[in-house]
Design brief:
The chain is mostly helical. Helix content is about 80%, strand content about 0%. The protein contains 19 helices and no strands. Helix 6 packs antiparallel against helix 19 and helix 10 runs antiparallel to helix 11. It is globular, with a radius of gyration of 21 Å. It starts with a helix and ends in a 5-residue tail after the last helix.
């Protein structure tokens, strides 16, 4: 190697190292905030993803120096997508199939119905379609995780990022209320443990609250609720793929650089979701390893939401107004009423 080529290689290595180092401060901040949220959540009994968001918002003034911004952007975008992909390790085909076709159809109809209600509500409130898809999808599928996954398929604008945070806060709060209220509803109507579990799995947003509501009633209700919820989680794949493709065809998506390319038809992180689901369903990997992958995905989602909080100003959130809250509440109520009506109208199927 000549002296010139050696110096050139050293220069390139130095530039690469500097570029890599630029991500460290922001990633470190996201990690510290997410770990703090996880620890505090364990003591306080609060949702860790909500605490990560609040901690991120509180740390937002630290972003003004720009030093942490590259790492935060990496966590809020790339880490978010990897985290969503890891959730596929928890979707096992045989467990879902064991529920029977009536439950599978119920879940798919509930998801489609709720997203349609979200979009209709957005139109009535003269909001954009992306907002209806974001809020309706968060309620329809799996709460905060779905909000983050759908936001990754939307044009990456400051307004959409702010709405994502509102969706996470709102859907987590509504999930907690549902966890406490829905067991009282099933008791009032005298629903069996299986029917109650199906209702919880079909109508409550976040997985943790579904499990909590189910086991408040009985072990059987808890197991059923968890499995039904997995069906809704599996709907994340086609829904996000359809949204990504649809958004790439809109003027907003084209302006954000989403148009043109196979990745927009089926985003890469969804390929990871599918691959891990297939591997998990094959039985070739030990359950403890699959659980570890899912836990890693949840940790990355915590990092992503903490980073999003850091990158979003409280003033921007305050400008969102009451419309997003309405776009969360109406689909939530509509989903619960719809699921109850179906269970009451076709008891022999469930």
């Amino acid at each position: 190697m000549t002296l010139v080529s050696k110096n050139l290689a050293d220069t390139r290595l130095g530039q690469g190292g500097a570029a890599l180092y630029s991500f460290v401060p922001g990633l470190a901040q996201a990690i510290v905030l997410s770990v703090s949220a996880y620890v505090v959540a364990g003591f306080a009994g609060l949702p860790s993803i909500l605490l990560a968001l609040l901690f991120g918002l509180a740390a937002q003034p630290l972003v003004s120096g720009q030093v942490v911004r590259p790492g935060l952007n990496l966590a809020a975008k790339k880490m978010l997508r990897i985290g969503v992909a890891c959730l596929g390790a928890g979707v096992i085909a045989s467990d879902i199939a064991a529920l029977g076709w009536p439950v599978l159809i119920l879940c798919m109809i509930c998801v489609a119905f709720t997203i349609a209600v979200g979009c209709a509500t957005a139109r009535v409130l003269r909001s954009d379609t992306a907002s209806g898809l974001l809020f309706g999808g968060a309620v329809a599928i799996c709460g905060a995780s779905a909000a983050l996954a759908i936001s990754a398929a939307l044009p990456q604008t400051e307004e959409n990022n702010s709405k994502t945070l509102v969706a996470v806060i709102g859907v987590t709060a509504l999930s907690t209320i549902a966890m406490l209220l829905y067991p009282l509803i099933t008791a009032y109507f005298g629903m069996s443990d299986k029917a109650a579990g199906i209702f919880f799995g079909a109508a409550i947003h976040d997985v943790a609250q579904v499990v909590g509501a189910g086991y408040m009633v009985s072990d059987a209700a808890g197991e059923t609720a968890t499995m039904v919820k997995l069906v809704r989680v599996s709907c994340l794949l086609p829904v996000v793929a359809i949204i990504a493709y649809s958004m790439s065809k809109t003027s907003a998506g084209k302006a954000a650089g989403m148009a043109g390319g196979r990745a927009q038809l089926f985003p890469v992180f969804l390929l990871g979701f599918v691959a891990l689901s297939i591997i998990a369903s094959s039985g070739l990997i030990a359950p403890i390893v699959l659980d570890g992958i899912v836990d890693a995905g949840k940790a990355l989602l915590l990092m992503a939401i903490a980073a999003l909080g850091c990158l979003t100003s409280v003033q921007a959130l305050c400008k969102i107004g009451w419309a997003p809250v309405t776009m969360l509440v109406i689909p939530t109520i509509s989903l619960a009423v719809f699921a109850l009506l179906v269970l009451a109208s076709f008891p022999t199927f469930f």
